Amino acid sequence: MMEGAGFEVVDLGINNPVEKYLDALEAEDADILGMSALLTTTMPYMKVVIDTLKETGRRDDIIVLVGGAPLNEEFGRAIGADAYCRDAAVAVETAKMLVARKHNQGAARA
Question: What residues does each domain of the chain span?
C-alpha cells in the first residue's frame, strides 16, 4: 500500500541487526522507518532501534512508524515511535501527514 501511495519502499526483511537499519536509512536518505512485529517476542527490539537512532543523533531526522498484530498505541508511545498504525491504510495516511509536516517545517526554517 505504501508503494501504491507513491512511497519508495525498501524491505529489509526480518531479524535484522540495528546496523542494517541505520545503513539503509543513510543509503536511502529515508524520511520514514516503518517497523512491524508479528510476535510479542520481537516487539522490544523496536525500542532498541529507536534508542540507537537517538544515540546516533538521527532520531529527529527520521519518522518512525510501528505496527503489527501485538502492538497498540500505548506501546508505540512507550518506545518513542512517532505513530502506531493499526493497519496499512492507516500507515499510508499517517506517513503522508507526517512527511508533509516534516517538509513544511523544513521549508519554514529555510
Answer: 18-109
Sign of the alpha-carbon torsion through 18, 20, 22, 24:
negative
Domain 18-109 is in which class?
alpha beta
- Across 11-21, b (16+ Cβ under 10 Å) vs e yields eeeeeeebeeb
pTM for this prediction: 0.92
Comparing CA positions, the residue from 83, 102, 95, 23 lying closest to residue 56 is 23
pLDDT in tens, the chain (110 residues): 999 999 999 999 998 999 999 999 999 999 999 999 999 999 999 999 999 999 999 999 999 999 999 999 999 999 999 999 999 999 999 999 999 998 888 777 66
